[in-house]
């Protein structure tokens, strides 16, 4: 048995009299029409520009699209982005070679700086108008981003947004490598790969804050002159791809105390062989897996198999250490946000003291992110690559119109009638041209016989 419920009937609509005396019931307002009017009254959602990865692969998968502006959740702050940092990790994400990537499409980027526009519930250490830098897990390359407050850091007075993205990721990684993991002390020596990149330059600068430290830097030969001219902190520049281990042995026969490797693959074995007893080898990247524009399973497999398997007994016998650093995992998987915040505070303190001076290679508009990525992929940057949402994109070169075969279009062929008319006109011109060439006067317009008769009559009158 189910309980019955009383329902009150709605009052019948009033009938209105018409001209012929009959009454008419007005039609009820359709519910669909009411909802349409409400939709018209509500404003459309605000949009922003963002760098979106539409699919894993080459540069064509990276597009600038309009996306809805993010909303602020509890514990988050909304940042108006002024600068974004480009890191090699972003290239690995684009190819899909990173672990546990999100499903496409999604907004790229792990580093940005700007001004707080909104503060979510529960956030007490930030307010609207604060200048900050953030390390979100994706979504940084946009005009607006909402980030949990634990991954946001207040900028010291005088630091610009551009300086912030050139300092934060690169120098925090360098700081953790040198002082938290390698235990850098006076008199030690170290070798760093990709010495011309953002982290490589940060390592060289921070290493020189310690007395009597010798820095060996490996990078492309084309960067050597530029690095030497730019207040270089590297004592010995070595050419990438050469037998640099022998060059190190010539200068330091016992090897080095610290090896910092962001390449992986074959360099792991070389680095291990260069270490002194009590030496430390630290891997903080795997850029050797990025060889082409798209993901290569062969490159990843080769980088893995080229690495010798070192047993703990060998480390014990040789008094050597192996370690690794992955900042993204430290923040988002291992829950060490407070540990990273202390490192950021120490780096910002060194910046205030003038011991940290970031080197910016170039600044790009969001629309030119593909060119910036290509420059980093080709290892042509010296220092940090920065994206600026306020910049206008580079003008695209104009290309001439081309046909199907890629050649310039030829004029259209004449029709048969046009060609026939043209030939007739040329034939009419020929007699006139021939007469002029022979010294003859051109014929008059049909009045030549009458004129000759009048001239003969005039001659006869004169003779009589």
Automatic annotation (TrEMBL):
One of its GO terms (molecular function) is zinc ion binding. It comes from the Eukaryota. Residues 1-10 have a biased composition (Polar residues). InterPro entries: ADH-like_N (IPR013154), ER (IPR020843), Quin_OxRdtase/zeta-crystal_CS (IPR002364), SV-ATPase_mito-regulator (IPR052100). Residues 1-48, 385-464 are annotated as: Disordered. The keyword DNA-binding does not apply. Residues 30-48, 405-440, 450-464 have a biased composition (Basic and acidic residues). Keywords: Oxidoreductase. Residues 13-25 have a biased composition (Low complexity). Residues 57-387 form the Enoyl reductase (ER) domain. Belongs to the zinc-containing alcohol dehydrogenase family. Quinone oxidoreductase subfamily. This is (apollo) hypothetical protein. It comes from Parnassius apollo (Apollo butterfly).
């Amino acid at each position: 048995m189910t309980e019955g419920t009383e329902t009150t009937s709605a009052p019948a609509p009033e009938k209105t009299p018409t001209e012929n005396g009959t009454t008419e019931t007005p039609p009820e307002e359709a519910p669909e029409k009411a909802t349409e009017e409400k939709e018209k009254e509500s404003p459309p959602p605000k949009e922003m520009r963002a760098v979106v990865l539409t699919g894993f692969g080459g540069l064509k998968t990276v597009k600038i699209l309009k996306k809805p502006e993010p909303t602020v959740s509890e514990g988050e702050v909304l940042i108006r982005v002024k600068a974004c940092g480009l890191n090699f990790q972003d290239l690995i994400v684009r190819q899909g070679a990173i672990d546990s990537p999100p499903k496409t499409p999604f907004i790229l980027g792990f580093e940005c700086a700007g001004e707080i526009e909104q503060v979510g519930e529960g956030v007490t250490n930030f307010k609207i108008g604060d200048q900050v830098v953030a390390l979100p897990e994706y979504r940084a390359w946009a005009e607006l981003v909402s980030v949990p407050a634990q991954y946001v850091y207040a900028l010291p007075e005088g630091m610009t947004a551009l300086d912030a993205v050139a300092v934060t990721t690169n120098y925090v990684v360098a700081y953790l490598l040198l002082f938290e993991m390698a235990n850098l002390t006076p008199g030690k020596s170290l070798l760093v790969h990709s010495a011309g990149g953002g982290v490589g330059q940060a390592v060289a600068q921070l290493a020189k804050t310690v007395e009597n430290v010798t820095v060996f830097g490996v990078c492309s030969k084309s960067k050597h002159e530029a690095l030497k001219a730019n207040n270089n902190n590297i004592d010995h520049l070595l050419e990438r791809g050469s037998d640099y281990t022998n060059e190190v042995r010539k200068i330091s026969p016992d090897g080095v105390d610290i090896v910092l490797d962001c390449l992986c693959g074959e360099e792991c074995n070389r680095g291990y062989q260069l270490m002194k007893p009590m030496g430390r080898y630290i891997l903080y990247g795997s850029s050797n897996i990025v060889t082409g524009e798209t993901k290569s399973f062969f490159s990843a497999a080769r980088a893995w198999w080229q690495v010798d398997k070192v047993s703990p007994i060998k480390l014990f016998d040789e008094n050597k250490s192996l370690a690794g650093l992955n900042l993204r995992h430290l923040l988002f998987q291992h829950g060490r946000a407070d540990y990273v915040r202390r490192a950021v505070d120490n780096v910002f303190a060194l910046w205030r003291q003038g011991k940290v001076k970031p080197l910016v290679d170039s600044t790009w508009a969001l629309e030119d992110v593909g060119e910036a990525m290509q420059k980093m992929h080709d290892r042509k940057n010296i220092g940090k690559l920065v994206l600026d949402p306020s910049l206008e994109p580079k003008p695209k070169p104009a290309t001439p119109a081309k046909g199907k075969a890629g050649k310039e279009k030829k004029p259209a062929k004449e029709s048969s009638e046009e060609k026939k008319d043209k030939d007739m006109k040329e034939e009419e011109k020929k007699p006139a041209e021939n007469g002029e060439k022979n010294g003859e006067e051109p014929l008059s317009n049909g009045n030549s016989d009458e004129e000759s008769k009048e001239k003969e009559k005039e001659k006869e009158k004169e003779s009589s």
